[in-house]
Amino acid sequence: MPFLNRLSALILATALPALAPFAAQAQETTLGVELNKTEEIETGGCRAFFLFRNQTGKSFEAFEMSLAILDAGGVIDRLLSINAAPLPVKRTTLKLFEIPDIACADISEMLLHDLPACTPQNEEPMDCFPLLSLSSHADAQLVQ
Questions:
Q1: What is the pLDDT of residues 9-25, one digit of tens each?
Q2: Whole-prediction pTM value?
């Protein structure tokens, strides 16, 4: 058994450095979309602050998300389309969107159900779902 433990350790020690470029590549090919915070609007409604972390190696001239806004009971309250373009390469971009007639505390989830537009600069439109990494620091969750 000690021989197998040493053999396993040796295999791991030689394999992990070889896999590091693949891990870095996976991290560098994501488009992070983070619901960073929400705040009430004085006139009613909720303002959502999104951070877009573009690590894809491409700038996007079109990036539109269609979100289903779920209320506190988990029922779809409305659909919201937001245009986040442009998204420059290797940059974090802040975008603010207003959701009228619903308090932030009444939003349990924002469901990304479609990407009507996702076009890298000087390229054809593409399916961006595989590139996305969604997260939330707000009380409401951002999911797909």
A1: 444 444 444 444 444 34
A2: 0.79
